[in-house]
Specification:
Elements (H helix, E strand, L loop, with lengths): L1 H7 L7 H13 L4 E3 L2 E2 L2 E2 L2 H4 L3 E2 L3 H4 L10
Helix pairs in contact: 1-2
Length: 71
């Protein structure tokens, strides 16, 4: 979700549907991982910080859908 909102807040923002697609592709391509208690630049709560996860599996990124106008 961090990447989704970062895409929407970019200087040249994408439409919502494309921002979601880009965030999902980053996870699918292995550009987003949980390592050393952080995901991207965000520190995780202690309960999650203990895990190192590969987020390429659809379990992690496919559940996000866009509801409403894609624009």
């Amino acid at each position: 979700m961090d990447q989704f909102y970062a895409q929407l807040n970019a200087p040249t923002p994408l439409i919502k549907a494309e921002a979601l697609r880009q965030a999902q592709l980053q996870m699918l391509q292995g550009q987003m991982t949980i390592r050393d208690g952080a995901i991207a630049n965000l520190d995780l709560p202690p309960g999650l910080a203990q895990y190192d996860l590969d987020l390429t599996h659809p379990f992690y990124w496919s559940g996000f859908t866009l509801v409403g106008s894609p624009w």
